[in-house]
């Protein structure tokens, strides 16, 4: 029986995939797997039994990936599963930035009892007027699942779109409209854009990437949309850029004590992925990835371990080893198995950066003592017996 702990509310559409081999547990200490959305796991201790963490969403900056890799915990996310939900909110943000819709709605509410409101409004509405997006230039930084959808949608709304992504995947590049101009340098995008939208992950490399030096290249009166993560932007520099009129409006999906007090800023309550469809898609994908790993040892959409698919085990037994990506690891593993007279039916060894994953089907049963011996190989983080 696998025990699963949910750190956030996970849609039942995903949880209903769990079969009789699973139970939900309220306890973090005896769980084999965590299902999580945005809860931070940076301060969380991980028990030795924890095999995987499935993030029902895209960003994994709430998970200590390096510590997970050291402990042989596979972290999954759900690429693209909430991209449409975020795209639709970005479009709403774009339009909210053009006219003072929020101020206008508040004005109407405040004047609800004015019998002459229909007349008064014609005098007052100029206070809430603005511009159109048609013909304006949108700069999209990060052209992955969300950025590509935003870029394509903006071209359909008659915007000029310029995109920047030095690490774009082939899949994302194929999905991009040919109308999207390709910027090889971020400076080109910053100089041309009337609106800039951020769709890149928060990592050590991208933290506070939007700072004074980039604000100084932007046009006076730029609108900045941030539906990715707050700390991609240096908020002290942002405040200055707003005061200097470089940033006309900042639209963000991430409330924090600083942005709540900035002028010309609209803050949304982290709603990008909060649609029924996105929550269902993310939960289902996360649960299925977790089940495939727990039951069969196959890895799909992990952010810290390589993909690996050996199908379902038809041999006598199956073991999985999570280890460092160092020389002679396979030699040492096969030596232990050979010594026990165990014959290998099939073996896959894939690596990702500093770590590697070896999945082995065996023609003999595997004993706990063999597992212990494999675990004692220097550089092995975890050994799982998937089928005895
Ligand atoms: N507001 C929300 O609720 C919400 C929902 C989903 C995702 N997000 C955020 O949006 C981010 C993007 O999500 P996604 O699904 O599009 O992810 P994704 O992995 O599909 O795309 C990210 C893209 O950013 C690019 N990139 C990485 N570093 C870059 C850099 N320095 N400059 C330019 N591009 C760079 C990558 O090459 C990739 O194409 C997530 O990491 C998450 O933080 C927010
Ligand atoms: O879980 C959520 O509601 C938000 C998820 C979002 O920030 C993501 O990175 O996918």
UniProtKB/TrEMBL annotation:
Belongs to the D-isomer specific 2-hydroxyacid dehydrogenase family. Its EC number is 1.1.1.399, 1.1.1.95. SUPFAM superfamilies: ACT-like (SSF55021), Formate/glycerate dehydrogenase catalytic domain-like (SSF52283), NAD(P)-binding Rossmann-fold domains (SSF51735). Pfam families: 2-Hacid_dh, 2-Hacid_dh_C. It is an enzyme of class 1 (oxidoreductase). GO terms for molecular function: NAD binding; phosphoglycerate dehydrogenase activity. Keywords: NAD, Oxidoreductase. Gene3D superfamilies: 3.30.70.260, NAD(P)-binding Rossmann-like Domain. This is D-3-phosphoglycerate dehydrogenase. Pathway: Amino-acid biosynthesis; L-serine biosynthesis; L-serine from 3-phospho-D-glycerate: step 1/3. Residues 318-388 form the ACT domain. It catalyses: (R)-2-hydroxyglutarate + NAD(+) = 2-oxoglutarate + NADH + H(+); (2R)-3-phosphoglycerate + NAD(+) = 3-phosphooxypyruvate + NADH + H(+). Catalyzes the reversible oxidation of 3-phospho-D-glycerate to 3-phosphonooxypyruvate, the first step of the phosphorylated L-serine biosynthesis pathway. Also catalyzes the reversible oxidation of 2-hydroxyglutarate to 2-oxoglutarate. PANTHER family: FORMATE DEHYDROGENASE 1, HYDROXYPYRUVATE REDUCTASE. PROSITE patterns: ACT, D_2_HYDROXYACID_DH_1, D_2_HYDROXYACID_DH_2. It comes from the Bacteria. The keyword Oxidoreductase applies.
């Amino acid at each position: 029986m696998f025990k699963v702990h949910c750190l956030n509310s996970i849609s039942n559409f995903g949880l209903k995939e769990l079969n009789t081999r699973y139970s939900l547990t309220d306890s973090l200490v005896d769980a084999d797997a965590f299902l999580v959305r945005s809860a931070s796991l940076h301060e969380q201790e991980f028990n030795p039994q924890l095999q995987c963490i499935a993030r029902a969403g895209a960003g994994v900056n709430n998970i200590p990936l390096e510590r997970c890799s050291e402990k042989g915990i596979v972290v999954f996310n759900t690429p693209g599963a909430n991209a449409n939900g975020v795209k639709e909110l970005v479009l709403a943000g774009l339009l909210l930035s053009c006219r003072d819709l929020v101020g206008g709605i508040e004005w109407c509410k405040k004047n609800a009892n004015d019998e002459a409101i229909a007349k008064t409004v014609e005098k007052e509405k100029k206070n809430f007027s603005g511009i159109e997006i048609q013909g304006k230039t949108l700069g999209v930084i990060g052209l992955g699942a969300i950025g590509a959808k935003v870029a394509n949608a903006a071209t359909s709304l008659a915007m000029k779109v310029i995109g920047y992504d030095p690490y774009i995947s082939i899949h994302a590049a194929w999905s991009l409209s040919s109308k999207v101009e390709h910027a090889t340098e971020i400076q080109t995008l910053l100089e041309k854009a009337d609106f800039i939208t951020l769709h890149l992950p928060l990592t050590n490399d991208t933290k506070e990437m939007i700072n004074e030096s980039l604000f100084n290249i932007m046009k006076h009166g730029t609108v900045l949309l941030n539906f990715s993560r707050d700390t991609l932007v240096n908020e002290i520099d942002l405040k200055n850029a707003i005061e200097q009129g470089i940033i006309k409006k900042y639209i963000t999906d991430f409330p924090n004590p600083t942005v709540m007090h900035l002028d010309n800023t609209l803050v949304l309550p982290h709603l990008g992925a909060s649609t029924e469809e996105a929550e269902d898609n993310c939960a289902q994908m996360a649960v299925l990835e977790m089940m495939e790993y727990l039951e069969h040892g196959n890895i799909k959409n992990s952010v810290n371990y390589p993909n690996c698919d050996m199908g379902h085990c038809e041999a006598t037994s199956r073991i999985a080893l999570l280890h460092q990506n160092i020389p002679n690891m396979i030699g040492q593993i096969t030596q232990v198995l050979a010594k026990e007279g165990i014959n290998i039916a099939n073996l896959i060894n894939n690596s990702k950066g500093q770590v590697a994953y070896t999945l082995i089907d065996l023609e003999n049963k595997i004993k706990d003592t063999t597992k212990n011996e494999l675990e004692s190989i220097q550089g092995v983080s975890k050994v799982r017996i998937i089928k005895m």
